[in-house]
Amino acid sequence: MPGATGGQSVGGARMGTDTDGALRAVRSLVELDETEEAAQLYEELGDSQRERLRKQAAQRPPKERRGLVEVLRRARDFLGAARLMDGSGDDAAAADLYAQSGQYLEAAEAWLRAGDSVRAAAFFERGGALERALEVYRGLGARESMAQCLVRLKRPFDAADLYRELGQPHAEVEVLGSVTSEDPRYIEAVLRMCRLLDVEGFTHRALAVLVDSLTSSDAARAEPAMVTERARLLRRMGMNAEAEAVLGRRNVPSAKPVANGYRFLKAIPIFSELSLEDMKDLYRQARQVVLAQGSVVLGKGEPAVGLLVLMEGTVDVFSGPEPDARRLNSLGPGAYLGEISLVQDAPVSAHVRARTAVRALRISRTAFEHYLDTHEAAALRIYRLFTQNLAERVRALSA
């Protein structure tokens, strides 16, 4: 089709050089149910002509605007289509179009008007309006999402309090670990981390955190409570002589930190390109679970529970739940199960039982979808790597 010049006839309408003519031509094609041709005509207009056409179209009745919305959508002018949808009564459709155009705050407001506060909050968060997202999450009672917002707002103690209420000590430790030595509450954060780690069985790591803070902070070295806590942790490890030496202000060797679930989660291939900040946010989405020896970890044919990352213990993978089912594999710390279920709602394809007691991290599909909704750059990296890994598996099977 030639450019929008001259006096050609389009769909029975005479198209002139002015925008009125262009709008009439587009409207005529819409009336003739020639939406694709109308979209092509719209694409061929200049920027200023399209802008004037949209302004004129906004004055048309809602019913007529809906036809023009479809034209703009097919032409991939998602923002123009969204703005034409405003006031039409279909706020959910407008929100989707705003989201496609990358206008996340406008999408969030439209979702609010549509009555979908969950999506509205996620898009406020994605668009960087964290205080607004926090307000909506608070109204929803979504404490985990509130905690994530508080982390991004640099309010670690508020976030830590929520994680404590939620029973997520690993997330509480991670967020307290972001408190710098310049913060007036730094010592409080360190002591709180040490007690949490100790309760969770990571006494060596608690001592390492404490020693590091004493090494790097003059204020920490001058704080009697830090010395007392160091001695307490040493006693917990059976190092009574060293504890007495600390109280006598003599140097003692530091302990090495122990591994936790973060490094296992970080090692999963589809997360290999996440930034440190995005990786920490993902880790806080996880929940620790403990499974007894002999319990079913994943039941074949049952709904998937999301990603499971083993931190301690061993599981056996069987072809099915039958007593004589063939054992396919055994997995230990660092192994992971169910990553496919993060992006596909399908039943479990194998039967997994705990050979020993197991401690693991679990990320549910719901939590992961929320993470993707609020971390656009991370979502693109994850999907790209997921697609690459899937393609490699297909090639391997074909070979």
Task: Lay out the secondary structure.
Elements: E1 9-10, E2 13-14, H1 19-31, H2 35-44, H3 47-57, H4 62-74, H5 78-85, H6 91-100, H7 104-113, H8 117-126, H9 130-140, H10 143-152, H11 156-166, H12 169-176, H13 186-199, H14 203-216, H15 218-221, H16 224-236, H17 240-247, H18 261-266, H19 276-285, E3 287-291, E4 296-298, E5 307-312, E6 315-318, E7 327-331, E8 336-337, E9 351-354, E10 358-363, H20 365-374, H21 376-398
Antiparallel strand pairs: 1-2, 3-10, 4-9, 5-8, 5-10, 6-7, 6-9
Q: Give the overall shape, derived from the CA principal axes.
A: globular
Biggest β-sheet, characterized? 4 strands, antiparallel
- The total beta strand count reads 10
Structural class: alpha+beta
Cα-atom Rg, whole angstroms?
29 Å
**CATH topology tier name of the largest domain:** Jelly Rolls
Placed side by side, the strands forming the largest sheet appear as 3-10-5-8
Poorly predicted ranges: 1-17, 250-259
Strand content: 5-15%
By DSSP (H or I, 4+ residues per run), the number of helices equals 21
Number of domains: 3
First-residue to last-residue Cα separation: 47 Å
Instruction: Give the helix level as a range of percent.
Output: 55-70%
The CATH C-level name of the largest domain is: Mainly Beta
Task: Look at the structure and give the mean pLDDT.
Answer: 85
Protein name: Cyclic nucleotide-binding domain-containing protein
Pfam families: cNMP_binding
InterPro entries: cNMP-bd_dom (IPR000595), cNMP-bd_dom_sf (IPR018490), Env_Response_Regulators (IPR050397), RmlC-like_jellyroll (IPR014710), TPR-like_helical_dom_sf (IPR011990)
GO molecular function, one term: DNA-binding transcription factor activity
